[in-house]
């Protein structure tokens, strides 16, 4: 039998501490990580704010660390809680043992006397952080794809995985727990059931959430860059966009031949057309200022520019596929197909990981940031820098094409 490979850095820390007989280090590692408790899905749906202890006949409660979770199934879900939480809620009538990753090389059967609970609290209070640190690249070393098309599609969603402190390659996804994942998508996406999830996922995969106006402005510049084989001056860009908008308005007012005969269209109000032109002009200025900041911060090369913002939708689609699994709105097989589509869509639009990343960040900023360069920008920049510099990053280990 070969040497055991820990699924993630979490289990590696537990294994090394246990192997060394350093139980203080074991408890330190345990205090930093979410501990997942199995729940019957029907019971969780009926009591979404509660966690129930289902002990074995020998009065043992099993918990799993993030890399040791079983694959999601329809009938069983998992809720995550901290060691601190267990220490606070454990009662005399509760199980006599807490079993951490039973059956694995990291397993430990912990007694639950008042002195033990006090020890748990001490380690929890000393923990420098809880959960995987945000802004860093985290991966499953086993149990998640590291190479190939599925890994590529998951890496398209790595921006959010890094920002949220999650494994980028976890397709059999549990996230922060069943009810927590449901609350997240309900709050941020108004998703409360499977049809909602399928609808949002399909819209993201079709790049139907990014503003068509943003994409129009960038498309005009792409055409100019192709025609003139070089950088596009901002005034040239604005003038070309204005000319295109005026031509489109004129064509819309021309008579059209339909099966019912000739239809005479009404010309659009001049004020409406002029308002569109002014708005696109402002947008071009805004994009230009973002790109200047991107170059200064290393998000774009010195002469770089953003091709498209569709990456913001494809990146979120990759994550939405996984979120659906965590919420039990979709299966792992459905998520895999969606992740593959996200990867293909990104490759069709962009030329490299860095190219894709700049498009993702610009879309996020245009929607949320309002040129404040606040957390919506700084967290995305941090994720970009981590993904383009960490030797373990999928972007440095998976070819774009």
Outline the structure in words.
- This protein is mainly alpha-helical and 401 residues long.
- The protein has 3 domains: 9-126, no CATH class; 149-210 and 310-396, no CATH class; 212-253 and 267-297, no CATH class.
- It is built from 16 helices and 7 strands.
- A 3-stranded mixed sheet has the order 2-4-5, with no helix packed on it.
- A hairpin with a 7-residue loop joins strand 4 (97-100) and strand 5 (108-111).
- Helix 2 packs across helix 5 (114-126) and helix 15 (353-368) packs antiparallel against helix 16.
- The relative contact order is 0.12.
What is the compact description of this entry?
With about 400 residues, the protein is mostly helical.
Please describe the topology of this protein.
Layout lengths: L8 H11 L3 H10 L2 E6 H6 L13 E4 L12 E6 L1 H7 L7 E4 L7 E4 L2 H13 L22 H8 L1 H7 L13 H12 L4 H12 L6 H17 L5 H19 L3 E3 L2 E3 L6 H28 L12 H18 L4 H18 L3 H16 L6 H15 L12
Parallel strand pairs: 2-4
Antiparallel strand pairs: 1-3, 4-5, 6-7
Helix pairs in contact: 1-2, 2-5, 4-5, 6-13, 6-14, 7-16, 9-13, 10-11, 11-12, 12-15, 13-14, 13-15, 15-16
On the 0 to 100 scale, the average pLDDT is 94
Q: Runs with pLDDT <50, length 5+? A: none
Overall body shape? elongated
Q: What is the percent of helical residues?
A: 40-55%
CA(first)-CA(last) distance: 36 Å
Strand order of the largest sheet: 2-4-5
**Series of H and E elements:** HHEHEEHEEHHHHHHHEEHHHHH
Structural class: mainly alpha
Q: What is the number of helices? A: 16
Care to count the β-strands?
A: 7
Radius of gyration over alpha carbons? 26 Å
Tally of separate domains: 3
Task: Please state roughly what percent of the residues sit in beta strands, choosing from under 5%, 5-15%, 15-25%, 25-35%, 35-45% or over 45%.
Answer: 5-15%
- Profile the largest sheet: 3 strands, mixed
